[in-house]
Amino acid sequence: MLLRTHSSLALAPMIALATQAAGQAAQPDLRVLSLRSMQVGRTVRVVGREIGRLSGPLLDVREGTLWLQHQPANRMVPIAGIDSMWVKGGGHAAAGALVGGLIGSVVGLAVVSGKQCQRGDTSCVIGIYVENAGIALGGMLVGALIGSGTKNWQLRYP
C-alpha cells in the first residue's frame, strides 16, 4: 500500500509536466498545412504585402517556400509573407443547368402555347410534349456549358 501511494505521488508531477510540455508545443502553420494538402498543378492565388498578388499552378512546398509555375521562370514565394491563399474552384454546371432548364421550359411553353390538338389525337399531344421537353433539355445543356465555364476563387487561408 505504501509503495502504491509513493508511485502515485511520483506519477502526478510527471503527468503535470507532460501536460505543460504538450501545451507549449509549437502550433503548426496553417498556411503550410493548407498548401501541403493541395495537389501539384492546382491553380492557387496568394496575396501578401511584400509579394502582392500572384497566381499560378502549384509546383512544390518546401523549406518555408512556395514554388509557383510562372512565366518566364518559376516563382519562389516565402510562406511567411502570405496573408491569404485562394484556390480556383470548380464551375457552376449544376446551377447553370437548373437556370437553363427553367428558361428552356418557359420558352418551350411559349412556343407550344398556340398549338391545338384534336380530341383523341395522341400523336399531336406527344409531339407537343416532345417539343417542349427538347427545348427544355436544350436550355439545360446550354446552361450547364455556360455554368461549367465560370470558375471562382475559394478562400483557403486564413
Give a written overview of the molecule.
The chain is α+β, with helices and mostly antiparallel strands. The chain folds into two domains: 30-88, SH3 type barrels (Roll), CATH 2.30.30; 93-149. Helix content is 49%, strand content 22%. The chain has helices at residues 2-23, 30-37, 93-112, 122-149, and strands spanning 43-48, 52-62, 65-68, 75-78, 84-88, 153-157. Strand 1 (43-48) and strand 2 (52-62) form a beta hairpin. The radius of gyration is 31 Å and the shape is rod-shaped.
CATH topology of the largest domain: SH3 type barrels
Quickly count the domains: 2
Low-confidence stretches: none
What's the N-to-C terminus distance?
A: 55 Å
What's the overall geometry? rod-shaped
Helix content: 40-55%
Mean pLDDT: 79
Main beta sheet strand tally, sense and closure: 6 strands, antiparallel
Derived from helix and strand composition plus strand pairing, the structural class reads alpha+beta
How large is the radius of gyration?
31 Å
CATH top-level class of the largest domain: Mainly Beta
Indicate the CATH architecture of the largest domain.
Roll
Please work out how many helical segments DSSP would assign.
4
Number of strands: 6
* Portion in strands: 15-25%
Task: List the defining traits of the structure above.
6-stranded antiparallel beta sheet; alpha+beta; SH3 type barrels; 2 domains; 158 residues
Secondary structure layout plus pairing:
Layout: H1 2-23, H2 30-37, E1 43-48, E2 52-62, E3 65-68, E4 75-78, E5 84-88, H3 93-112, H4 122-149, E6 153-157
